[in-house]
Structure formats: C-alpha cells, structure tokens
C-alpha cells in the first residue's frame, strides 16, 4: 500500500500571508458547496447565516468552555440552547441537558448515563445490554464498545425500515439497561414507533433513548406547522433521554449537539468528576474537558437569529421541495425510493442497475450523495438529505437521476459482479490482509487516494460480510492515512 507521507511544516517560519495562501491551495481539491450539491452530511443555511456563525465562532474561539466560572457568558449560552431544545421537545421543569461536540458524543453520554444509573439502582445487572433496531446509528455500537456494554440488535419492517415491535419486546430482558429508537433513522428517514417502544421499555423499568440527532428539531417544527403529529419526545413518559444535533437541521456549524435528560439524576450519571489527584478538580458534564466555546456561540447566534419563524419557514420550504422531488423521482425508471420517508431525507435503490454506478454518475453531474451497503434485509442504496442550501438546485435532481440511470442502462455496467463473487469465493478462508492484496486493484485502490469511480470499491465492499468489511476498511485507512 502507498502511504500518504506527512510533510515537514516546522522547519522554517512562514509569513502569515503565505500560510493563508498555502491553506487555500490545500483546499483546492476539497468539495465546494457552491459547485457541488452536497445532499448528505452538510446542512447549509446560506451565506448570511454562515457569516453570522463565523463571526460568533471567532468571538468565542479562545474561551475554554471547561472554565464556566471564568466565562459565565458561555454557561448562559449553553443554558439558552438547552432551554430552547427542551421547549421544542416538550421537556418539563425537571428536564435538563448539555451541549456536546456532536451526535456521537451525545449518544455516548446517554449510554454512560444508563450504565451508571443501572450500577446505582439495578444490582441484578451483571452484563449490561442495549437493545436497538438495526437501523440505529453506529454511534450506539461505538459507545457500547467504549463502555463495555453488549448490543442486542433487533429487526425492522423490511419495507418501512421501522422497528419490529415484537422482536424489540422479545429482546428486552433483566440485563437491558437502555433501549433505543430513532426519530428518524438516518439511513432511510423513517421514524420508529417511539410511543409503543418507550412504553414497552417503561413497563419493564428500562430507560429509553430517542436518537433525534437528525430530526429532533426538524420533526418538532413539522409538529408546530401541523405537518406531523406523532409524538417522539418528552411528552411520552417512557422517553428518558434525547440526542439532538444543532449542526444538522439547526443549521449551526460543527461541532454542536445536545444531550437532553428527563431529570437531573440521569444527567449527573453521565458526568465525570474527580478531585482525588494533585491537579485541579475536574468537573466534566461531557466527554471533552477543554473545548473551544466557538461552536456554542455560533449555535446560539444562529438560533437567536432564526427564531421559531425562521426555522418554520425553512422546514416548510424543505418539506415542500422534498415532496415535489419524491414525486418526480417516482417517475424515474429503474430507480426506487425505499420506504416512505417522514421528513426531508430519503434513500434510492435499484433492482436492475448498480446503484453505486448511479452514485458515480450523479457525482459527475455535481451531486454528492452517500452510498449505503445492503443490511438488515434492505438493499444497497444511496442516501439523500435535502436542506435549505440546495433547494434552488433540487429542480435538477430527478432529471439528472433519470439521465444517469438511462445512460447506465444503455451502456451497461462496468462493474463485473459475477467476477467479484467468484473472486471472493476463491479467497474464502484467507486472512483479510491477503484478500486485500487481490481485491484492492479490482477496486481501483492503487494509492493513498480514492479512485474517481467508487462503484467497483463499493460493490466489492457490499459483497463482504460486515465484520470482514470493517476489517478491510480499517486496514486500508490505517495504512494510507
């Protein structure tokens, strides 16, 4: 494997203007939101709000949020952000929360809260478990890995990709410390039956977390607009914690998320406090200790500027555009929308064409989607997130998708799946390191950078079992980064 060699940047001092010029040159190959319609992983509120966020971020760049005693303004902004989210998610006077660096950290804290609460209140738990549908975010598995907890994965409806209640209920046992539902799941944009799931958990004395990272704010504004009425928040007595990202459909810059708890006892179980060393007393409500206050200020500024009216207008625009696009995509031959998405995110699949090749073709036309592997009974697909920053370009989406699918059907696939399956069968039983030696050239991986056409790589990965796929990705990225 070819390694990406680091450059020496400390040899000689470089003037400020030269450093800026180098940074501009380095970013020359980065994806530009102005030139590419990024409909996955980026949530763009437009130039005016971005400029406001940058100014606020810069104002508080140097303030360390660890020292809330030195910077009461930062503590106040955090309280304001938590309060705003709790208003939307219908918390009560006992509800509380903290700002984090992202959904993964919010989820990790919710899992730690559940684990430590069980340690204090449920002595019968010796092998703590989390029960979650296969559509739940990988961050739960990461948290379980870090915190020494077992995950029990349950089935979903194969057409709607919502949690199967029977399988979910059967998995809840006396070792379950936390159950999880998504509002919505990121992969398909559908919401689990949160009301039923949370009540099942509550009836068994099990905490229940709602992953609202992508939809917590958005779905709340849909409710306020009369576009959706199914509850998923603290209005349900069984919901004990919620994660909600401000840097997704809150349109704040990275890194800003919230973890919200039904009461202060649950929040305190997530904290880490230590005064038993020669160092200063450490009081960490989140995983991080020292952290810039920039994201807190930026999120506060964006929410203060937009207010309910601004967010409602954005959600209304996004939903209207998404509804129109889904109707248009429904007319595209050889491509299907999976499930019945409940907000402005959805996935596309194909029974007749290689969806990863469609992804490549769409990228050539200026669209940045996210490929997802076949899993849980669902096919391989590509993910789309509609946001305010791409609404003016979404009129092109269905025509470009039609063009991409038609060209692929006319020209035929350049990915030989029969050969891939035969090669994988011949490599069965070999160590993953040896398998990579054969598979990497087939995938176009001949150096540290990804090839222009990703379909061969994604198709090979799609045919690997998940554990082997994870190992292959880890080995490749470890060697090339």
CATH architecture of the domain at 58-301: 3-Layer(aba) Sandwich
CATH homologous superfamily placement of the domain at 58-301:
Type I PLP-dependent aspartate aminotransferase-like (Major domain)
Which segments are poorly predicted (pLDDT under 50) over 5 or more consecutive residues?
Answer: none
What's the end-to-end separation, in Å? 11 Å
Q: Write down the Rg.
A: 23 Å
Q: Please state roughly what percent of the residues sit in beta strands, choosing from under 5%, 5-15%, 15-25%, 25-35%, 35-45% or over 45%.
A: 5-15%
- Annotation, overall tally of beta strands: 15
SS-based class: alpha/beta
Number of helices: 16
CATH topology of the domain at 58-301: Aspartate Aminotransferase, domain 2
What sort of overall outline do the alpha carbons produce when their principal axes are compared? globular
The helical percent reads 40-55%
Describe the main β-sheet briefly: 7 strands, mixed
Overall mean pLDDT: 94
